[in-house]
Amino acid sequence: MSFRVLRQWILVGTGAVLAALMLAACSGKDNSGRPLSTSSGSPGGPSFMLDTPNGWTAVDLTADDVNSFIDEAVKANPGLKASEPAIREMALSGSIKLVAFGETFEGFAENLNVVVLDQPKELAASELQQAYLQEMTPLALPGTSPQGELTDLPAGKAAKMFTQISIGQGKSIASLAYMLSNGNRSFTVTFSCPMSRLGAMERLADSVMQTFRFP
User: Fold this and answer.
1) b vs e for 47-70, b when ≥16 Cβ sit within 10 Å of the residue's Cβ?
2) Which of 42, 44, 130, 183 has its CA 20 to 30 A from that of 77?
3) Per its UniProt entry, which superkingdom is the organism in (predicted)?
4) What average pLDDT score do residues 150-165 get?
């Protein structure tokens, strides 16, 4: 099953959030409605589980996929050039733990992704929120700004954030991010959709985040 999609992920570094917009064609196997889990990459380390929406498809990314997406992102968004080395290093380190796609609306495949990063210490939700606001502001559609709030999830206190991002030709997408920590790792779950679908996506994202947990 192939999608022509724009992928957006958020990489949370030490007090920083890096964003990349990805435009590519990909294929993946059907994992509709299956609970998906991932380990942190270290024996006995934290892991998470997340129930993907019914009918969504999870995709396994290769290094070639990631490099291609980053090349397209920098080409479409020259402002990312300065951040390209950090984005590429984080992406290729295995930080992207899950990418899944839903239906296509207005030529855009709705999607979610999960990024997990090691941090020097456990970060409070308020610290993640401030990092997001600082780093996402330059990527917001002119005349808009990132916004968000702190919220309680079953997995713990989280920052729920939103940015409207221009993708050219007068179009923009909505990016919803839920950010939380567990020990010295940060977890960012990002949902993307056309602006016209924001209300429906927020309801879906809120329900999905009720299933996000640390086993």
Assistant:
1) bbebebbeebbbbebeeebbebbb
2) 130
3) Bacteria
4) 95
d(CA 80, CA 205): 27
- C-alpha to C-alpha distance for 69 and 88, rounded to whole angstroms: 10
CA 147 from centre of chain: 16
What gap in Å lies between CA 11 and CA 96, rounded to an integer? 9
Is the distance from CB of 135 to CB of 17 less than 8 angstroms? yes
Q: Which of 39-53, 88-102, 109-123 has the highest mean pLDDT?
A: 109-123
**E strand or H helix at 174, and its extent?**
strand 171-182
pLDDT, tens only, 41-56: 344 444 799 999 999 9
Q: Residue 31 corresponds to which amino acid?
A: N
| CA atoms within 13 A of residue 168's CA, in its CB half-sphere | 8
Strands 16-27 and 108-118: unpaired
Q: What is the mean pLDDT of the chain?
A: 74
Q: Where residue 74 falls among pLDDT bands split at 50, 70, 90? A: low
Q: How far is CA 11 from CA 27, 186, 207, in A?
A: 23, 10, 23
The domain spans of the chain are 2-209
pTM, entire model? 0.77
* Per-residue tokens: 190: 């990002």
pLDDT of residue 27: 26
Which CATH homologous superfamily contains domain 2-209?
Answer: Mog1/PsbP, alpha/beta/alpha sandwich (3.40.1000.10)
Q: CA 88, CA 142: separation in Å to the nearest integer?
A: 26
